[in-house]
Amino acid sequence: MRFGRNSDGKILASVGGDIRPPARIGTSRNSVVRLWEIGSGRSIREFGASEPCLSLCVDWTPDGKPLAVGYGETYRSVNSAQHLTGRQLSAGVRIWNVDGTLNARIVRVSEDAPQISTIYAVAWDHAGRRLVFGGRDSPFYVRDADEGTIRSIAVDNWYDLNSLAWKRDDSHILVTKRNNVREWRADGSRSELVTEGTPSSTFMSVSWSPEGEWLVSGGGDSVRLWKKDGTPGPVMTGHADEVYDAVWSPDGQWIASGSTDSTVRLWKPDGAPGPVLLGHVGEIHDLAWSPDSKRIVSGGWLDGTLRVWNIETGKTEWQALQLETDSAVTLSSSGQPLHGDRELLESAMWYLVEKPDGTVESLSFSEFRFVGVRFSAPNSGCS
User: Fold this and answer.
1) For 17, what's the count of Cα atoms within 13 Å in the CB-facing half-sphere?
2) Nearest in space to 75 (alpha carbons), one of 136, 156, 164
3) Which of 31, 196, 230, 360 could potentially form a cystine with 51 if both were Cys, beta carbons 3.0 to 4.6 Å apart?
4) Per-residue confidence band for 303, with pLDDT thresholds at 50, 70 and 90
5) How many helices (DSSP H) and strands (DSSP E) are in the chain?
6) Which helix (DSSP H) or strand (DSSP E) does residue 344 occupy?
7) Burial class (CB in 10 A: 0-12, 13-18, 19+), 190
8) Strand order from edge to edge, sheet including 222-227
């Protein structure tokens, strides 16, 4: 599950195309975009279910109104994607308004340009005027809303693009591939190598510190810090498997990392380890901080859940579970349903409860109840 929060942190947008194992990916239900109320876990709105491709990434404009969503197909290698060629015709980017209406559809750069392929990363600049987006087997693109143009920036051997991020002054774009990180001028005229990977040091994500002086990268089984000129800083170890995301808190006090080992780990910028957040089962692909740095949201790929964590307590405040029915329910930290259709809960949710004698009993939602058991701008229009 991938997501982004809007500017005041009250609303969370999630996309679901990357929350299932490869054998189960490929149905249109995973094109849905959902908006959540962070405080309660209530699902405010869902839209985009009719899109033929999977929704894979999302980012809000700074004013918290339009959302950019990247679409395509998930695959582990270029060869395994050959049979998906037909569905790539609908890949690209959609820009949605928060009321669920379509603002713009980006499928081709121009009539003569190659088809835009699967999009794995989207990012608005800090002014909300330019959108950068790219995928695993294509150039990356910059869309300028003021000029009404889309510019492609071609790169040789362009595979395994993992993340895109604007510099604070919007003059450059940080482009992360598995084996290197480069900083490109926003006009595409020049790039500089920031750092290069090794077999034991790969890059799944890179992001700036709040003041723009440091970079944090996740990849391999570690989290690494780099000065903006590429000078290495502290290396944080503790994860037992691939680190998919590493993000700095807005107040600069924490770094969070999510891994295939099912854990979210917190670190101090000097490399000192902090709390370990447990609850997911399987890969954690995406993380996002609330603007006040008091909450962090994590998205699980295998378990199909979105979790909102309280940093002070280290506990889950609520979690959302996406079901096979193209529906979702919100659960409390103890597993008690908070929001969801009653009929759906009765038919789709079962609990395994360990009894005092060590045996396990299967209970329906109603039976379990009786035993006691993702951020918007002020004028975003969500309610």
Assistant:
1) 26
2) 136
3) 31
4) confident
5) 2, 32
6) helix 342-348
7) exposed
8) 205-208, 214-219, 222-227, 232-237
pLDDT at position 46 over 90: no
The dihedrals phi and psi of 81, each to the nearest 5 degrees, come to: -95, 0
Nearest to 126 by CA among 153, 95, 165, 164: 165
Handedness of CA 371, 310, 306, 180 (dihedral sign): negative
**For 84, phi and psi rounded to 5 degrees?**
-100, 10
Measure Cα distances from 148 to 142, 274, 308 in Å.
Answer: 11, 46, 37
What single string gives the DSSP state of each residue in 235-274? Answer: EEE--SS-EEEEEE-TTSS-EEEEETTSEEEEE-TTS-EE
How many beta carbons lie within 10 A of that of residue 307, not counting itself?
25
Q: Residue 141 pLDDT more than 60? A: yes
* pTM across the whole model: 0.80
Q: Among residues 274, 275, 292, 162, which one has the least CA distance to residue 218?
A: 162
Residue with tokens 């940080």: 174
Contact yes or no for 99/119 (Cβ under 8 A): no
First to last CA, the chain: 23
